[in-house]
Amino acid sequence: MTELFSPEILSEIFEFLYVSDHHQSNLFNCVLVNRYWCRTAIPVLWSDPFRFFVYEMPDGLITIYIACLTKRERRNLKKQGIEVPMKVKSPSFDYISFLKNLNYYGLISSLFHFGSNGIYKKNDSFGIMLPALLEILANRDFILQSLELENYDRRGDWDNEYMHLVNPNVHSLVKPVKKMYLDCKVLNAKFLPLLSGQCQSIRHLHIYLQFQNSKKGSIICERDATDYADLIERQESLEVLIITNFVRYFKKIFPSIKKQAKSLRVIEFINSDFKECESLEGLANCENLQSLIFRKCDNLTDEKFRALFNAKLPKLQEVSLEHSKKDEGIEIWLQSFIQESN
């Protein structure tokens, strides 16, 4: 009776619970039902540990990961000056092997807590522990599916931590990533170009454009815009592109979107101001586009949309301009599209 559902179906149910329940209490309860449910739920529960667990058991995560290390991995850490127990009771599962989605901020935060009594500070071993752990993950036999890069410190204090991620020794960890959320300010000019060189298989990309203060207000710097454009352009087959806070340098980023015209299925702009944008012609070339969304966007004019008015997008199924300021011509075009779709 306990095996009424196949592992595949049960896993899908658990994945739904994982996404919908922020505190994971329901999924934790499923682990306790019986061994069959436990074996199926644990891989789901540990597929993205640093996203949900960082505030609930931050130091415990690293402790469990260390317990999963092989003797060889422990010896390598010890050679680098990191003290780890050589004899520990092996966990019931190899939790590291279940990692699919890496929240990098969560990983760093967990290491901050580790060995520091819950205080956010870099302990003595942090500087060598982070790159060492990344190399261990890179040498493990699993495929990382998604990577979340975000930080909340815009002064450059996190530069070293983020540069570890683009180290050649970690290349095999980040290379297969299919989904990326990018919301971080790394002042080192090499970071984004190196990231673009290592991650070229991204299918789903969400870029949260960062700002810097100036006399003219908050703006995205030109160097970052160029690097973001390069990241978009270098993907082998980008299908979903989401850009938040798009306000400047449209001429740099739109040509890169045009390069992905054959593969893009979904394009979404959030909290963006198109005042400095001359035309949306780059979007009109996306022949396989299925969904085009403008959410909370400003300065959407008929002139900018002219190319879309005349575009042939046979696969387009959804157009949304939710809470966006738009001209009357755009509204007419939108209503016409809705009527034809129905």
TrEMBL record:
Protein source organism: Funneliformis caledonium
Family annotation (InterPro entries): LRR_dom_sf
Top-level taxonomic group: Eukaryota
Name recorded for this polypeptide: 2878_t:CDS:1
